[in-house]
Amino acid sequence: MSGISLQGVSKRYPGGILAVKGVDLDIESGEFVTLVGPSGCGKTTTLRTIAGFETPTDGTVRIDGKDVTDMPPYERDTGMVFQDFALFPHMTIHENIAYGMEASGEYTREEIDARVAEMLDLVELPGVGDRTPDQLSGGQQQRIALARALAPRPKALLLDEPLASLDKQLREQMQVELRRIQQEIGITTVFVTHNQEEALTMSDRLAVMNDGRFEQVGPPEVVYDEPDTRFVADFLGTANIFDGTVTAIENGYATVDCGDVTVRSQSPGALETGSEVSVIVRPERVRFEATSADGGTRTATERSNVFQGDITFKRHLGSSVEFRLETSNGRELVVVRRSGMDEVTLGDSVSVTIDPDDCRIVEE
Ligand SMILES: Nc1ncnc2c1ncn2[C@@H]1O[C@H](COP(=O)(O)OP(=O)(O)OP(=O)(O)O)[C@@H](O)[C@H]1O
Ligand SMILES: [Mg+2]
Questions:
Q1: Domains of the chain
Q2: What is the pLDDT of residues 37-57, one digit of tens each?
Q3: Is 194 a pocket residue for ligand 1 (Cβ < 6 Å)?
Q4: Is 278 near ligand 1, meaning CB less than 6 Å away?
Q5: Residue 37 C-alpha to ligand 2 middle, in angstroms?
Q6: If you measure from the C-alpha of residue 139 to the centroid of ligand 1, how many angstroms do you get, rounded to a whole number?
Q7: Is there an atom of ligand 1 within 6 Å of 19 CB?
Q8: Biggest CA-to-CA distance, the chain
Q9: Tens of pLDDT along 236-292?
Q10: Per-residue pLDDT tens for 89-130?
């Protein structure tokens, strides 16, 4: 198995659009890396550049240490699955999976038959080889597309939104299935999605893309808990964001004046007074308790990181509950906490507390 390396890769399409702007990425052998970002940010272009369907305007692509920048796709040994995965409708499943191996001319009939059977076992669909694609469900067809990509033993697997056309339940099943198969054979994988949940749950690392650049690359828990930029915080999961100006820094904590409220946050080393920043607080980190009858008199600005509010929305998410609160300053806060904690309901008044250690400051 092999790693993939992008160095300073840019892609300008004819007509002038700079779709990818000098990205660097080193993917280790066997790693599952997801490119995630909003529509049009350059995910597909980056993936197609790795596959060889696009030639970068600048930069170098290496697979297994070898410079493949000017090599055509069929010499790169990558297996690709597209969003519409298009199995050949007039061919049997067996013929579909065998296609890449047949085309290479390097394998005997016996080798191909054995490999197809092995692939059908891997995707847990033994015995469907004689059917045609229209005799399979959407999810089953998706697995066959994966088997087809893997059959010629590619060095890397490249997947462009392969689950996007599946309904939610099937999609979640296939996420688990895809990850199982990837880990079982240990193949280096680059996966493209604009679904942030999918990116967070499936990947060893993710690269969050915005406007042709990587905003942050890291393991899911790091990118989620320690976003480098406001964009990353906002794009991945839900974030409570307080924009403001740093007015003081003391003992590793910063005071941020956000106009209507003052927020105290742990402070990154290099921060300076006067900087424009955003304070990010994830919903799981916000605490609140129902306000006793006399507790509501304290004004919101009296203490930093304490807010009075009312619950305006509540929904159960299974093992947790999401609340939306409107503070007395008119801000909306999102809070997620474990199910079964003391019950509060719509319209209840609450006192919200945010620990400065649960805040993260990013500079504008
Ligand atoms: N063949 C092309 N010619 C010119 N411009 C293109 C071409 N393909 C893509 N683009 C432009 O390049 C930019 C990046 O497109 P790309 O397909 O890589 O985005 P994406 O992140 O995959 O988006 P999506 O989530 O919608 O699939 C977009 O502005 C797009 O319009
Ligand atoms: Mg795309």
A1: 4-230 (3.40.50.300), 238-363 (2.40.50.100)
A2: 999 999 999 999 999 999 999
A3: yes
A4: no
A5: 10
A6: 27
A7: yes
A8: 83
A9: 989 999 999 999 999 999 999 999 899 999 998 889 999 999 999 999 999 999 886
A10: 999 999 999 999 998 899 999 999 999 999 999 888 999 999
Residue nearest to atom 5 of ligand 1 (CA): 13
Residue nearest ligand 1's atom 17 by CA? 44
Does the pLDDT value for residue 341 go beyond 90? no
Q: Is 13 in the pocket of ligand 1 (CB under 6 A)?
A: yes
